[in-house]
Specification:
The protein is α+β, with helices and mostly antiparallel strands. The protein contains 14 helices and 40 strands.
């Protein structure tokens, strides 16, 4: 028995005993004792995320974030659990994030205060040690398969590539009393941050005894672009080849076209930085990303869109064969968009993550024929990570539903998923989650359209219940059987409201034609679906009280809320609008990612065909607004700038329509801070109670 096995065996016995002591808590909750799920429960839940499987397939590490409400933040620790599901997790790191296994499966690297650290319970008395000591913060990293190099990403000035030079320039600028920002190209700002001239670039560091030595080697010297991409990219945007000699990354050349281009290409750079990056996918002017390799290095795969300028195009699976030097799309007939890829151990198959009819599932795809089989059923399976163990492949992923928050699961292809964590069990003990079901109806173009209905807490046959009609954003999004830490239908149902949600045309997971149907049709086709879905839900579920209903939406859902306030306000007693598009024409000038606004309005700018932007512009129908509306908008939302919300509230006030405005100066397009989230929910709950009642006790 190895020292590592001894460590886990001892810990497993101790934690299993603790788990057994706490087990009766769940069993003791009876229906009579059950209570509704609230915003306090939602915000207070521990959050499990970022699960990764050890290379030998035996262990999974994950991030556990625990609320500190007084500090208005979440504290992150790292836990490890066996993938056989037979033992309780154990904490390895008291403070840290972004865990990744080392090639030998004995330790993990992780991020702490901007640097890479390592923990190995069986090494050096189990003490953590610092791996990097760089002048700038490390944002992400990958370890080479041979353990000889570490690749990290840092934000640097492209003309001051070494991190020390960037740090010196930043320190000098901080001394200046002048606060002006100067730009001669876009982006001026992106998502929630003003551009500061830095780019996310990749560097390699040699490892000696597992510790980074020497100066970081730039892999993107002078490259005018970001990898990982801003604002949400991470280590999924780059990969190290199985032989450890090259790094393949996805990036978009910036220049002056960055805000209206979706032309991300794959580039290859030697890990020693000896030559400049070489573009691998220059022939495709659309989005290329997500490179992955078969274990023997003979096959490479990536995801590719076909239409330049469209961020919601279908990601097809492209495979390159090093022996034949040929490349082809292996799945052209599979009408789903691949969100993530990983090779099987034998290189004959690819594991694929994709949205599929109100769910996100894991699939296995034949790397030659493209034949696809699902590995998971309904629910939401994301963040898969694959190991090629001696007993076969092991997939670790995050799984959740509308009733259960994300937990870590392990799956051996051909087997049944095994739940490895039960973090939410104790916190949800004694809480009654509301029942929900899918329904279908005939919508625009006589197509079948899907929706959800969630029963209110305390539902009884024969009753009538006020209803909230939720409209999703995107617009290329979906109401899936998944958990949300923001717009969670269980909270609305816990307040005593029925909840209706419709996946109108434009939603994802139903094929690309269904998704495409919304572009240049924001106000007609999806509106028809929403109208038909609302009618169908009331017919099928007579306990829905259509006379006491409020419509609510965020982002595109906020656009639609403003739109129906002027075009279809008859059924509604009130509205809730979060970060919605109020003036579609000015949106084409003020948003940062211009490709989105231009594609959605007929692939033109507002000055080329202004009528495209005015055709479905809520601001043109303010004269018809007559229902009470709560408007919520945040100052750091650069996707849909705050003036959109202020403009809508101004119109409501000037017209004398009952209205309120909730503004968060420190939030972006989302409300993320715990205490802000509580204020958001409290405000919405009080608004609904005022206009459609009841307010939960």
């Amino acid at each position: 028995m190895t020292a590592l096995r001894k460590f886990f065996r001892t810990t497993r016995i101790l934690l299993a005993a603790c788990a057994l002591v706490g087990a009766p808590v769940l069993a003791s909750a009876t229906a009579a004792q059950a209570r509704a799920f609230t915003q306090q429960d939602l915000v207070g839940l521990d959050r499990v995320s970022d699960a990764h499987v050890s290379p030998d397939g035996r262990w999974a590490v994950y991030d556990l974030a625990v609320l500190d409400l007084a500090a208005n933040k979440r504290n992150h620790s790292l836990w490890v659990v066996a993938t056989d599901g037979r033992s309780a997790p154990t904490r390895w790191v008291a403070e840290g994030a972004n865990p990744r296994w080392t090639p030998g499966s004995a330790s993990i690297y992780y991020l702490l205060k901007g640097q890479v650290w390592e923990i190995c319970p069986t090494c050096r008395s189990g003490a953590a040690r610092q791996i990097t000591n760089l002048p700038l913060d490390v944002d992400s990293f990958r370890i080479a398969p041979d353990g000889q190099h570490l690749v990290v990403s840092m934000a640097v000035f492209p003309d001051a590539e070494q991190p020390a030079a960037t740090k010196a320039r930043q320190d000098e600028k901080a001394k200046s009393k002048a606060s002006g920002r100067f730009y001669d190209t876009l982006f001026v700002r992106h998502w929630d941050t003003w551009a500061d001239g830095t780019r996310n670039h990749l560097f390699s560091l040699a490892l000696s005894g597992g510790v980074a030595t020497g100066a970081p080697t730039p892999l993107m010297k002078g490259f005018d672009g970001d990898s990982p991409s801003k604002p949400f990219g991470g280590d999924e945007d780059y990969a190290i080849t199985p032989d450890g000699k090259s790094v393949v990354f996805s990036a978009r050349l910036a220049g002056r076209t960055e805000p209206w281009s979706t032309n991300f290409d794959l580039y290859s750079a030697p890990i020693d930085g000896s030559t400049e990056p070489v573009a691998l996918t220059a022939a495709n002017k659309a989005w290329d990303t997500g490179a992955t390799f078969s274990p023997d290095g003979q096959l490479a795969a990536h995801r590719a869109m076909k239409r330049p300028g469209f961020e919601a195009d279908r990601f097809g699976v492209i495979v390159y064969d090093a022996k034949t030097r040929t490349e082809r799309e292996i799945d052209p007939r599979w009408d789903r968009s691949a969100d993530a890829l990983a090779f099987s151990g034998d290189g004959r198959s690819l594991y694929v993550e994709a949205g599929d009819t109100q769910a996100t599932k894991l699939f296995v795809m034949d790397a030659t024929s493209g034949a696809v089989k699902p590995l998971t059923a309904q629910g939401h399976a994301t963040g898969m990570d694959v190991a090629h163990g001696k007993d076969g492949d092991v997939i670790v992923y995050m799984g959740d539903t509308m009733r259960r928050p994300p937990e870590v699961y392990a799956l051996r292809p051909g087997g049944t998923p095994v739940q490895l964590t039960h973090q939410a069990d104790r916190q949800l003990a004694g809480i009654e989650m509301s029942a929900y079901e899918s329904f279908t109806f005939t919508g625009w173009n006589k197509d079948e359209v899907h929706g959800w209905v969630v029963k209110p807490q305390g539902w009884k046959a024969g009753g009538k219940y006020p209803t909230v009609f939720l409209i999703h954003g995107g617009p290329q999004g979906s109401w899936q059987d998944s958990w949300s830490s923001r717009w969670n239908p269980q909270v609305w149902a816990g307040w005593g409201y029925a909840v209706v949600m419709v996946d109108f045309h434009g939603s994802t997971g139903y094929g690309q034609d269904f998704t495409d149907a919304i572009s240049n049709h924001w106000g007609d086709r999806p509106l028809e679906d929403l109208q038909e879905g609302w009618a169908a839900a009331q017919t099928k579920y007579p306990w829905i009280d259509g006379s006491k209903a409020c419509a609510a939406g965020a982002s595109y859902g906020g656009f639609m809320t403003y739109w129906i306030a002027g075009m279809w306000n008859q059924p509604w007693k009130c509205f809730v609008d979060h970060d919605g598009v109020f003036d579609n024409r000015i949106m084409g000038y003020a948003t940062e990612e211009l490709w989105f606004s231009e594609w959605e309005n007929g692939r033109v700018t507002p000055w080329e065909i202004a009528s495209n932007y005015e055709k479905f512009n809520p601001i043109n129908h303010v004269a018809n607004w007559n229902r009470p509306m709560l408007v919520i908008h945040s100052d750091k939302d650069f996707r849909i700038p705050v003036d959109q919300g202020i403009g809508a509230f101004t119109a409501l006030q000037r017209k004398g329509v009952p209205s309120q405005f909730l503004n968060f100066p420190d939030e972006n397009h989302w409300v993320l801070k715990p205490q802000n989230s509580l204020q958001w929910h409290d405000t919405v709950q009080a608004w609904l109670a005022q206009w459609i009642g009841p307010q939960s006790k």
